[in-house]
Amino acid sequence: MTEPDDLPLAGITVVAVEQAVAAPLATRHLADLGARVIKIERPGEGDFARAYDASAHGQASHFVWLNRGKESIELDLGSDRGREVALALADRADVVISNLAPGAMDRLGLGATALRARKHDLVVVTISGYGDAGPYTHRKAYDMLVQAESGLCSVTGTPETATKTGVPVSDIATGMYALSSIEAALFRRERTGRGATIEVSMFEATAEWMGHPMYIRMYADRQVGRMGLSHASICPYDAFPTRDGQVLIGVQNDRGWAALVRDVLGRPDLVDDERYATNIDRVARRAEVDALIGSLTRGFDSVELADLLDGAGVPAARLNDVAELVDHPQLDARDRWRNVQTPGGPVRGLLPPMTFTDVELPMGAVPALGEHTDTILAELGLRGPTPDGTNDSTREDTHHGIA
């Protein structure tokens, strides 16, 4: 059985002024790793991701996904009482993370400079759309907008249609960089006693993920095309037809090409064919190669072909939908599903993907809005209700959400 002190971040307290996806993803992982995460929410409304949908026992799917293991306190940060409580929480915390609009935390008296003046070893992380300087600083920066502005949509989709990704990758990239920077700052603090002020920009996080197409643009002077399931620099790399469907094949090198055509498709003559001998040759003749491979894969059933490819060491996959992911035999074989408690009843959740061999990471309950308000106030010696209602200064729109 897992003991709390065995968890990697046991004893770490995180205060989160967060909404939507980017910061909540980072703090949910911190909670999974054993940190205590106290989520500050607007009275009566809370994180607006609570209202995205009602798919999971009447609760929003995003909120259930991103907020397990946290404690919820309702605070009106526009009031003196709300700020008093927030400062008391920060004084006891190891990490404060926020993803409000640029400058919102400073205007509330809760910015990094103010907080670290009170507690020098505090780690303060601010997530923004475009950073705290430059001509785009105050632009809205929802996930779709950042994907478009960063060029990600220009390399995603089909030749005819640019698309955003099916999951909010700009938010996810930002949340994961925030997570890794927090862990690094805490590790440095163990050695030096120094806290940290950290900024993570959605735009810069997504731009980092654009490294491959950026280098092709800068040094080969060409735009990477939208390739659908294919790949701009590798061939064959696509979905290929079978008698009863299709199978994805991704040949990464010339050895893989030889195994595909010789061992799976029964065409050893193609191994040394000068038209297809190297990946560069195959990419130059992509349409020809794809048509050739497709004409050969049509003679197989999907399961038969997938088994042959696997046996030959050729990378391949089925094109699953989400139902097939939920029922995937690999998740069952590795016992990855657990029940997570929520105010609407238990839901299934996947264990965190970072697997420690000596301890199972916890999957705490998803909190109801304000569920822990009284308990936390009592801990702080600030018993009594917080003010209800909000005012303009608390309605700082987040720039980091779904679109």
Automatic annotation (TrEMBL):
Organism this protein belongs to: Dietzia maris
Signal sequence region: none
Region spans: Disordered: 381-403
InterPro entries xref list: CoA-transferase_III_domain (IPR050483), CoA-Trfase_fam_III (IPR003673), CoA-Trfase_III_dom3_sf (IPR044855), CoA-Trfase_III_dom_1_sf (IPR023606)
GO molecular function: CoA-transferase activity
Keyword Lipid metabolism set for record: no
UniProt KW Transferase keyword: yes
Protein's name in the database: CaiB/BaiF CoA-transferase family protein
Highest taxon, organism lineage: Bacteria
